[in-house]
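pinned: reference chain
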Amino acid sequence: SSASLGEIRLGRHDTLTRQLNLGYGSDLTAEGEIKVVDGNFGAAAGRVLFQNFGSRVDTAVVYLSPSFGGFQVRALVAAGEGATARQQGLLLGYAAGPIKAGLSYEEYDDAPGGGGSAYNKVFTAGGSYNFGVATLGLGYQKTSDFGSNVAESGVINDVDAYNVGVLVPFGSFEFRAQYTHSK
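pinned: its structure tokens
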């Protein structure tokens, strides 16, 4: 770690998409990965509506830049070691005053068993603004080539999703509401 050069971390870490969703306010419910609860309305139960790109990744190397005027860059690479696919991603975040915003891109590469191609490519943009009496959060996510490692592979390959949320503090409580749409 260096104040002027940044920090390198090794081991098990939250994915960058999860860090953006929870840390920069595009998921104000703090629910994490939002999924279909049941199979009603023609949707497969457990299908991801707005993903965190998993929650944590093993054997990762993460770089965190110093903050420059509120901006910070984070990069992640994980080898996978043959048990899981390799994973890589980049996050650009901004946090200053009442504003938090970020952009991230992550993907898996070379699934176990071969193939050598990238899949589950996830671009996420999101942020929040704290008005004092309430915080408003917005998020957008574009997933392509989704399905190479999920049970319903072949059913859905691309997902466009957005969410809108609000957090209202009330004494020692917080009331949270969020709407997520996925197509």
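why pinned: The first helix runs from residue 16 to 23. Helices lie at 16-23.
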